[in-house]
Specification:
It is a single chain. The radius of gyration is 20 Å and the shape is elongated. Helix 6 links the parallel strand 5 and strand 6. About 35% of the residues lie in helices and about 20% in strands. The termini are far apart. By secondary structure, the chain is of the alpha/beta class.
């Protein structure tokens, strides 16, 4: 039976304060939860009998069979699906990152959880295993960000740290740090490496000056046709998609 205490606990995890306190987060949705079960420890899963019947052995500490009304009470979504789960926050180690051998995404102050979740999906699609975020970037374990990842968080590790210090260390070791700027070099004509860090900036302000000073490879995504009046800039998630696609295209089709 789904108790009032469990409903209260689940709803408390909508706030970062309680996610950190309990070291837990909520995920909802048929495919999303199924994907997350493969990567995170599940402390509680609430689902309709029909969903459970399709899953076989479910690796959750506590399983509760529930009807639609119970799921609706517990849900943090406007339109609940058949299953809701509470997972334990992972302990990812930032020292596992190897920018000398792989591409890494760095996010400087991304505020919109939808943008963050979409960038996690992009990283998964383009085979990027690590994202490094400044401490003022949105929390990837917030309900909105989790939903936006569509399960990609099962394959992509998101780290939070002092981004300026992290990038300064990488730059001192000769790691290429790429960023997009209006005065950068056209990405389609510039030589790109198979490794390094792709720095993407805040939705409104872009990459902050202290971090911009560390970027040693400045890129520009041209509009088409060149010189035509257009919007001021691309959405950060769209810009990330363009940059990642071009890096991977070069690796598939080396000059």
């Amino acid at each position: 039976m789904l108790s009032k205490a469990k409903v209260k606990y689940i709803h408390s995890l909508e706030l970062k304060k309680f996610r950190n306190e309990h070291r837990s987060f909520v995920a909802e949705g048929n495919k999303l939860v199924a994907d997350m079960l493969q990567a995170f420890e599940c402390e509680l899963l609430i689902a309709k009998p029909s969903w459970m019947a399709t899953q076989g052995d479910i690796p959750a500490i506590e399983l509760l069979v529930a009807e639609e009304e119970d799921i609706r009470k517990a849900s943090l979504q406007k339109n609940p699906q058949d299953v809701l789960a509470v997972f334990k926050l992972p302990e990812w180690d930032i020292t596992d990152i190897s920018p000398r051998e792989e591409l890494v995404i760095a996010l400087d102050g991304i505020q919109d959880p939808g943008n963050l979740g979409t960038i996690v999906r992009l990283a998964d699609w383009f085979g990027i295993a690590h994202i490094v975020c400044g401490t003022d970037t949105a929390d990837v374990f917030s309900p909105k960000a989790i939903q936006a990842t569509m399960g990609a968080l099962a394959h992509v590790k998101v780290h939070y740290t002092d981004l300026e210090a992290f990038l300064r260390t990488q730059a001192s070791q000769g790691i290429p740090l790429y960023g997009t700027f209006l005065d950068g070099e056209n990405i389609y004509g510039k030589t790109l490496s198979n490794n390094g860090i792709l720095v993407m900036g805040n939705e409104g302000n872009g990459i902050r000056p202290a971090i911009e000073s560390l970027v040693n490879e400045r890129l520009y995504i041209p509009n088409y046709p060149e010189g035509q009046a257009t919007s001021e800039s691309l959405n950060v998630a769209i810009a990330t998609a363009v940059v990642c696609a071009e890096f991977r295209r070069r690796q598939r089709n080396p000059a």
